[in-house]
Design goal:
The complex is a heterodimer of chains A (110) and B (110). Helices cover 0% and strands 55% of the residues of chain A. Chain A has no helices and 11 strands. In chain A, strands 2, 4, 5, 9, 10 and 11 form a 6-stranded mixed beta sheet that branches. The model of chain A has no long low-confidence stretch (mean pLDDT 92). Chain B has no helices and 11 strands. The chains are: A mainly beta (110), B mainly beta (110).
Chain lengths: 110, 110
C-alpha cells in the first residue's frame, strides 16, 4: 500500500462548478499537508499549506484536513478554465522528506 | 515566488552521451532535491542534499549522480544516457516545510 493515495482522474467539470480533490494517507506521523498545482510541462507550485486538522481558506480554494480519518481534501469554488491542471497532495512528518500523491488531472470546460 | 532555475528546459540526446542537468537557486536554501516524473505519474525522489558536501540517494534507484559544492548549485549528471532515462527531471529547494520547484528539464534519450 502506498503511503499517499489520490484519485488519478481525469476529472472534467463545467466552468463554475465546485471541485473536490481528495487524498488518503496511512502514516499517522504526517503533520504537514500541502497541495501543489502543476500545469502541463511546468514544475509544481505550492497552492495551500496546513499543519492542523480543520479548514484553511484562500480565495476560491479551501484545504481540509481530517487527521482522525487520515484524509485531506482541496475544494475549488467557482472553477475556472485556468484551474485546469494536475493537483498533487503532499505531506511530511516533522523531520522526514515530503511524500507526494500521484496527482489528479482536472479539466474545467468553458 | 521562488527563484529556482533549471537548464536546459528540453534536451534530446543520443544513447551513451554524458549529460548534466543544471539546477540553481538564489534563496540560500540548504535543502535541495531532484525528482523524476513520468507523464501522468507521481514524483519520485532520486537525490537530495541537506547542504554543501552533503548528498544522499532518494527512494527511487537512479543511475545518476549529484554534487553540492555550492549552496546555490545542485547539478545532476548521467554518465551514459539510455532511453530508459527519458523523463522529466524536477529540481526543488526547501524553506521550512515548503518545497519550491523549478520548471523542470524534459529529457529524451534516443
Amino acid at each position: 500500500q502506498k503511503e499517499v493515495e489520490q484519485d488519478p482522474g481525469p476529472l472534467s467539470v463545467p466552468e463554475g462548478a465546485i471541485v473536490s480533490l481528495n487524498c488518503t494517507y496511512s502514516n499517522s506521523a504526517f503533520q504537514y499537508f500541502m497541495w501543489y498545482r502543476q500545469y502541463s510541462r511546468k514544475g509544481p507550485e505550492l497552492l495551500m499549506y496546513t499543519y492542523s486538522s480543520g479548514n484553511k481558506e484562500d480565495g476560491r480554494f479551501t484545504a481540509q484536513v481530517d487527521k482522525s480519518s487520515k484524509y485531506i481534501s482541496l475544494f475549488i469554488r467557482d472553477s475556472q478554465p485556468s484551474d485546469s491542471a494536475t493537483y498533487l497532495c503532499a505531506m511530511k512528518t516533522s523531520y522526514d522528506k515530503v511524500i507526494f500523491g500521484p496527482g489528479t488531472s482536472l479539466s474545467v470546460i468553458p | 515566488e521562488a527563484d529556482i532555475y533549471q537548464t536546459p528546459r528540453y534536451l534530446v540526446i543520443g544513447t551513451g552521451k554524458k549529460i548534466t542537468l543544471e539546477c540553481s537557486q538564489t534563496m540560500g536554501h540548504d535543502k535541495m532535491y531532484w525528482y523524476q516524473q513520468d507523464p501522468g505519474m507521481e514524483l519520485h525522489l532520486i537525490h537530495y542534499s541537506y547542504g554543501v558536501n552533503s548528498t544522499e540517494k532518494g527512494d527511487l534507484s537512479s543511475e545518476s549522480t549529484v554534487s553540492r559544492i555550492r549552496t546555490e548549485h545542485f547539478p545532476l549528471t548521467l554518465e551514459s544516457a539510455r532511453p530508459s532515462h527519458t523523463s522529466q527531471y524536477l529540481c526543488a529547494s526547501t524553506a521550512g516545510d515548503t518545497q519550491y520547484f523549478g520548471p523542470g528539464t524534459r529529457l529524451t534519450v534516443l
